[in-house]
Design brief:
By secondary structure, chain A is mainly alpha-helical. Chain A contains eleven helices and two strands, in the order ααββααααααααα. Chain A starts with a helix and ends in a 6-residue tail after the last helix. The relative contact order of chain A is 0.15. Chain B is mainly α and about 280 residues long. In chain B, helix 4 runs antiparallel to helix 5 and helix 5 packs across helix 13. The longest helix of chain B has about 30 residues. Classes of the chains: A mainly alpha (about 260), B mainly alpha (about 280). Chains A and B meet through helix 2 and helix 8 of A and helix 4 and helix 11 of B.
Chain lengths: ~260, ~280
Amino acid sequence: MRTFRLLVRAGFRRHSTYRLALLAGMTTNSVFGIIRASILLAAVASAGSAIGGYTGPMAAAFVWWGQALLGTVNLWGFQEVKERVRSGDIAVDFLRPLNPQLTYLAGDIGRAGINFLARGMPALLIGALLFDLAWPPGLLAWLVGFLSVALAVVVAFAGNFIVNLASFWLIEVRGLQLVWMIVSGLFCGLYLPVPWFPGWLRTIADWSPWPAMLQHPLDILSGRVVGTDVALVLANQLGWALVLLGLGQVVLRAGRRHLEVQGG
Amino acid sequence: MADRFARPRRRRLVPGPLGERLRPYRVLLAARARAQMQYRTSFVTDILGTVGVGLTELAEVWIIFHNVDVLGGLDFTAALLVFALSNIGFSLADMVVGHLDTLPTYIRMGQVDAFYVRPLPLLSQFMTSDISLRRVGRLGVAVVALVVALSRADVHWSVATVALIALTIVSGTAIFTALFTAAGGLQFFFVDGAEFTNSMTYGGSYAAQQSQRVFPDPLRILWTFVIPTAFVAYFPTLAILDLPGDRLGSPWLAWCSPLAALVAWLAAAACWRAGTRHYQGAGG
């Protein structure tokens, strides 16, 4: 546990080194936030008072929390594990006393932490200054919302980790990563709220792990999901986190047996 | 090298000094294109990937219009036309100069110095250093969207309409190319903060895909006079479909898109010049 904590801290510090990059990311997130919020507000205004349970302020909150969490939740994936499998360095990871999945999870949680503070919160502040945002209804909702964000970080990591592990069997997983990025982007609510989807598309989303990576925390933080429904949403996220982490362990073990590293 | 010995006759067929001057670029681009198509499966996957990116962007428009009939004064057909025109311009520009985005990597690796010692202008070397053929996928989605939108819409076809569409695509591509180039020039100053310029290139492209009437006035002025992406698709759509404009956007502005492209290019040239003057080498 202590090792895990130290690794989280290392991830946090590693990603806080490039301050200018954090500022640049925050700026771009905010510009997109302004464009997206304008579109969604125009749509809500055109439909009347609300679409799919989203009023104007809720839609604006959906957009700005989404932009704030963009750097926190690793939706676009990472290359590190893939590269290490390809170069054979993953063998070194296997020799370490901590399971590779947990090692990388710790690093990713640290990365999420610094991005949440340095990139997410300023973006949210800009959003709150420029737009009328809906807020979580109470202190408990805030806390549960942050818990939901943490679970989203884990689910997104676990999914991406499995995609990275595909490189045990495939020479180049770039295509797979691209497909994952496109599909998850659509179904996690990165572009539009999932409740706005037509029925059949929504059904697909509801049975997939992707809403657990962004849509669910956004629903809690924008106050669209309240009361006992919050528990259902959290249970869904926890379920997906466990399923994907478990699946990742299975794939990791299979890959370990399959792996052959030349030279030494 | 082999090319020079293998095909001497071809060289003589190129008329005039201009063709002779462009020859290195042609050879370079052909080599890049051949290289990209070498790994067939990878190339096809990449194209399918960009088709996927195009389709998700299209899905966004479609899902919004699943919920509303009109957005920012445009119906679905008109919004589709805006989507198509802006995406054609963007993917053409992205294909030619999109890789200027990776300039910070070149700078950090010290590879820019290698470009400086070659006897060709820096910018044209960068432009021909890569050509992203895979982006043809997104272009394909946009072209299909254009055909569908034009056939669904009630267009009064005339020579002027055809000319306007052609003019729009050329100017749109030029405007996005200018944005990428300006962004590239600024990368020399930012390096680590390269993502700053994404708000101009990708943000500009995203804004160009929308009915400008969804934006508040200050933003509309920004997208018209500072980063002129409103000229890429929205104004032309008003003109092609004969829609009424409003006080911040009239259909006749569609004919000013070459002017917007020219101004954008002057600004881009200034940015690029400032950037290359600022660059002092990586000590390689």
